[in-house]
Design a protein that fits this description.
Layout lengths: L1 E5 L3 H13 L3 E6 L2 H11 L3 E5 L9 H12 L4 E6 L4 H10 L4 E5 L6 H12 L3 E3 L1 H9 L11 H11 L4 H8 L3 H14 L7 H12 L6
Parallel strand pairs: 1-2, 1-3, 3-4, 4-5, 5-6
Helix pairs in contact: 2-3, 3-4, 7-8, 7-9, 7-10, 8-9
Length: 216
Amino acid sequence: MRAVIAEDSVLLRIGVVKVLEMAGFEVCAEEADAAGLLSAVEEHRPDIAVVDVRMPPGYTDEGVRAALVIRRQWPDTSVLLLSQYVEERYAVDLLAANTSGVGYLLKQRIADVEEFAESARTVAAGGTALDPQVVSQLLMRRHSDPLDRLTPRERDVLELMAGGRSNSGIAAELVVSESAVAKHINSIFTKLDLPRADADHRRVLAVLRFLGLANT
């Protein structure tokens, strides 16, 4: 898989590049601002763009706005946003624009090389990876809870789904079998009245319902 990096901190950019290369990615370009990022994506059409939320010249939301442009103009390129702090409106903006091939992680997660690499692979493959702190913040913004029908274990499964975990990852975290996880997920789909569709689409809908980003 091919990646483009946009991060103005040279040291952090070098670290991200090294982690991605160790994870099997080919890094096509390294940029320090949003304009360079968009040019690199247009030229290389990578599988994933790893983007700092705040970049020159204003250090506000340049990375987010560039990410939205990428998702609109080059939908085959997934986007993984990196942020120093949880800024929930940026996560909401990105998820509202497209629910597949997106990620939002705190920069501190890069220190866990294996976890960060797995998140990058998930997003590049069209999945979703959300930092646990981002998930918590999004949950706090809900005014009502449409999930009362779920059991505590089903809520645990859904929370891990929201964090981008696969069935095997959920099974390992909860110390249960993958078949048990599959049964919980099917029960979640039923209890949330999700329309019949392919499994990946229903997972996305369930996660959005969990985060309060979809109509109940």
